[in-house]
Design brief:
This protein has helices spanning 13-21, 54-64, 115-125, 198-210, 217-250, and strands at residues 2-10, 33-42, 50-52, 68-70, 80-90, 104-112, 129-143, 164-165, 168-169, 172-187. The chain is an alpha+beta fold and 251 residues long. Strands 1-2-6-5-4-10-7 form a seven-stranded mixed barrel. The chain has a two-stranded antiparallel ribbon with strand order 8-9. A hairpin with a 2-residue loop joins strand 8 (164-165) and strand 9 (168-169). The protein binds zinc ion.
Length: 251
């Protein structure tokens, strides 16, 4: 399973060089490496209406340490350019979309500074590459309502992902992670879904605003994760705009 990707931020090579050297063949200095931290996954409900439990995040933290990062989804050894040297579960003090405490598995990653990695490092520093995608395998997915195994058609007690039971949203809980795989750097696409133009979509939203939606609960529920994602990235954009304006004022 591949899970969604996250933002990159720079880390302190000087403070971490001893940890990094556990994975290096020759002794490295802080000047030899570029370090950053990245959220590998979290306990937010994803677009498949599944989420990690606290216990599975803790196991994944152990599984991700030592895993390599690859460029361009190409698994040849030539493209293994980074390595996770630490992974910890952190609480950023925010809530998940369904009101639980947000937990993030944050990986610290190092790359060697050399000719081969220079352009990728510049892309990360310049914000062009600012996400990674990770893969993992979990032994089972259980029903959040009753704890039974969750299948394609629901659990044995007929609870369906996305439906509510006594006010509680039913989701699949990803449990017993077996392995975590290499991660890939992702260049942020300028348009996530090619083929659907913005102007066509704005017409659809105009229609939706005036339509009676009572019979479309199922379809709307299906789209909810994407609506939430869109709102979140719009807020992020606004926040960036606010910071840029503030900096301009300062200058
Ligand atoms: Zn159930």
């Amino acid at each position: 399973m591949i899970k969604k990707s996250f933002r990159v931020k720079e880390a302190d090579a000087a403070a971490d060089i001893a940890l990094i050297n556990q994975y290096a063949l020759t002794e490295l200095t802080p000047e030899d490496v570029f370090c950053f931290s990245v959220v590998l996954c979290d306990n937010e409900v994803d677009r498949d209406l599944e989420r990690f439990t606290d216990a599975s995040l803790a196991v994944l933290a152990e599984l991700f340490v030592g895993k390599t990062g690859i460029k361009d989804h190409d698994w040849s050894s030539d493209n293994q350019v980074a390595r996770i040297y630490r992974a910890e579960v952190e609480s950023p003090g925010e809530k998940t979309s369904d009101g639980r405490e947000l937990k993030q598995l944050v990986g610290s990653v190092y790359m060697l500074r050399n000719e081969r990695t220079q352009s990728l490092i510049e892309s990360i520093e310049g914000g062009i590459v600012k996400e990674v995608s990770v893969g993992f395998q979990a032994r089972k997915c259980t029903c959040s309502i009753c704890g039974e195994l969750m299948g394609w058609l629901g659990c044995p007690n007929d609870h369906q992902k996305g439906a509510e039971y006594n006010g509680e949203l039913c989701v699949g809980l990803l449990e017993d992670p077996l392995d975590a795989y290499e991660f890939s750097f992702v260049a942020v696409p300028s348009q996530r879904r090619a083929g659907v133009t913005k102007s066509a979509l704005s017409g659809v939203f105009e229609m939706l605003k005036n339509a009676d939606l009572t019979d479309f609960g199922e379809q709307i529920r299906e789209l909810m994760p994407r609506f939430r994602e869109a709102v979140a990235s719009a807020e992020e954009r606004d926040e960036r705009r606010r910071i840029i304006n503030e900096n301009k004022k300062f200058l």
